[in-house]
User: Which sequence fits this backbone?
C-alpha cells in the first residue's frame, strides 16, 4: 500500500483547491508522508500505520461507511494522519488508527488496565482526552501545526511507552 | 424470551448495547471498543440532533440480542452491513457522562438513542468518548471470533 503512496502522482492533490488546511502545511505534510513511504520496510510500525491510514482512506471515503451516517474521510485527513504518524516519537507504543464518524482519523491508545488516550485531528486542531484512572481524566486542544502536544507526549511517556 | 416492552424509564443498571458494523471500530484480539465507535455523526438537515442508536438489551438472551441486530439494524440500513460485534455498557455510565438515553421504540421496542452530546465543545465530546470506551465491554459475534 505504501508503494502506492510512494509512486503515485500526487500533483492533483497539491493543485486541489478549497482545502480547509493551509496549503503550505499540506504540501509539507504530503512531502514528509511521501518521503516516509519510500523509506525501508525495516522502519516497522510507522510504515504499517501509513498503510493503515491509506486503507482507512480507501474504505471510508463515502458517507455512511460505518452503517450509521458517518462523514466520509477525505484525503486531507489521511495526509494529516500520516504526518502525525511521522511526528510520533519512536519510544511510544504504536497507536490504533481509527476512522471517525466525524470525517477524520483518530489516534487511540488502550491498555489492559482500561486506560484510554484519544487524539483527534479535527480541522486545524488536535483535540485530545484521556482516562487514566478513576479520578484522572485529562483533556485539551492544540493547533495541529505545533505537532504533538506536550501533555499528550507526557501521557504517552508515562503510560504508553514502548518496551 | 425477554419482555419485548422495556420500562419507559431507563434503569441505571440496565445493559445498553451498541451494534458494531465495521471492523475498524473495534479490535477483537485486544478486546477493545474504540472511542470513535460511540462518536455520533455530524448534524445534518435530515439528522438535526446528534445521537447514536443503541438497544436496551437487559434480560435478553444472547441469541435474541444478535437477532435484533440482524433484523432491525442490518436489514434496515441501506448498506446492510452485518453486525460483527457489539459494545455493551451499563446505562449509568452513559448517564454519568451527562448524556440521555431516550427510548425510541421504533423500529423495535428496545431501541433508544443516546442524546445530549455537546455541540460546541470538542474536548468534552472527546472526554465522553474515551470514558465510554474505557467502560465498554466488547462482545464479538460468536461467528466472528478468530
Assistant:
Amino acid at each position: 500500500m505504501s508503494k502506492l503512496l510512494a509512486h503515485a502522482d500526487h500533483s492533483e492533490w497539491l493543485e486541489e483547491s478549497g482545502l480547509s488546511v493551509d496549503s503550505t502545511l499540506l504540501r509539507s505534510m504530503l512531502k514528509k508522508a511521501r518521503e516516509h513511504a519510500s523509506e525501508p520496510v525495516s522502519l516497522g510500525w510507522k510504515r504499517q500505520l501509513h498503510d493503515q491510514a491509506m486503507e482507512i482512506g480507501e474504505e471510508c471515503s463515502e458517507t455512511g461507511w460505518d452503517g450509521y451516517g458517518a462523514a466520509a474521510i477525505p484525503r486531507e485527513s489521511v495526509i494529516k494522519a500520516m504526518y502525525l504518524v511521522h511526528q510520533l516519537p519512536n519510544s511510544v507504543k504504536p497507536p490504533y488508527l481509527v476512522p471517525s464518524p466525524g470525517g477524520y482519523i483518530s489516534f487511540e491508545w488502550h491498555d489492559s488496565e482500561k486506560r484510554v488516550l484519544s487524539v483527534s485531528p479535527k480541522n486545524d486542531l488536535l483535540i485530545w482526552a484521556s482516562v487514566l484512572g478513576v479520578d484522572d481524566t485529562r483533556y485539551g486542544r492544540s493547533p495541529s501545526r505545533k505537532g504533538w502536544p506536550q501533555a499528550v507526549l507526557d501521557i504517552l511517556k508515562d503510560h504508553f511507552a514502548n518496551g | 424470551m425477554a419482555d419485548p416492552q422495556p420500562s419507559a424509564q431507563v434503569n441505571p443498571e440496565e445493559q445498553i448495547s451498541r451494534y458494531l458494523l465495521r471492523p475498524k471500530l473495534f479490535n477483537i484480539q485486544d478486546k477493545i471498543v474504540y472511542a470513535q465507535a460511540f462518536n455520533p455523526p455530524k448534524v445534518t438537515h435530515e439528522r438535526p440532533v446528534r445521537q447514536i442508536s443503541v438497544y436496551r438489551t437487559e434480560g435478553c438472551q444472547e441469541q435474541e440480542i444478535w437477532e435484533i441486530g440482524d433484523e432491525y439494524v442490518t436489514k434496515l440500513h441501506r448498506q446492510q452491513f452485518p453486525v460483527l460485534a457489539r459494545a455493551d455498557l451499563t446505562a449509568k455510565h452513559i448517564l454519568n457522562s451527562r448524556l440521555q438515553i431516550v427510548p425510541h421504540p421504533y423500529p423495535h421496542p428496545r431501541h433508544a438513542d443516546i442524546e445530549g452530546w455537546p455541540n460546541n465543545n470538542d474536548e468534552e465530546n472527546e472526554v465522553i468518548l474515551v470514558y465510554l470506551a474505557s467502560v465498554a465491554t466488547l462482545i464479538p459475534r460468536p461467528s466472528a471470533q478468530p
Summary: The first helix of chain B runs from residue 62 to 74. Chain B touches chain A at residues 21-22, 24-25, 27, 30, 32, 34-36, 39-42, 44, 47, 52-53, 73, 77-79, 81, 122-127, 129-131, 133-135 (CB under 8 Å). The first strand of chain B starts at residue 15 and ends at 20.
